[in-house]
Amino acid sequence: VQLQASGGGLVQAGGSLRLACTASERADSMYSVGWFRQAPGKEREFVAAIRWRGGTPPTYYTDSVKGRFTISRDNAKNTLYLQMNSLKPEDTAVYYCAATSRWAVILTTTQEAQYWGQGTLVTVSS
Prior knowledge:
The chain contains no helices and 11 strands. It is mostly beta strands. The strands form 2 sheets. Strands 2, 4, 5, 6, 9, 10 and 11 form a 7-stranded mixed sheet that branches. The protein has a 4-stranded antiparallel sheet with strand order 1-3-8-7, with no helix packed on it. Strand 5 and strand 6 (about 60) form a beta hairpin. The protein starts with a strand and ends with a strand.
């Protein structure tokens, strides 16, 4: 599975961005997908996750982004999204999409991820 992330950029606090992650090569093998982020000097952390297939799967978020970020996917386009609203300076980080093919594993930790995208930088100015 190959993942390609895009959509990062510079935005003022309170603004919005939408990240996208396109999957190719054996995308059908993915069970769950998610977004992680890594701020300068910090460890990579979980942001949001969703099951790749299924009608209306539940979504999972870290507490700091609940109510502001929305994860979604378009299976027809093999694309995962992260809509980020009400951005704060503390959201500044490199954002990575990730996936796992392990059955019944919802991707919420870096250890569970088997595939990573290359990262896209989000900078939120105050």
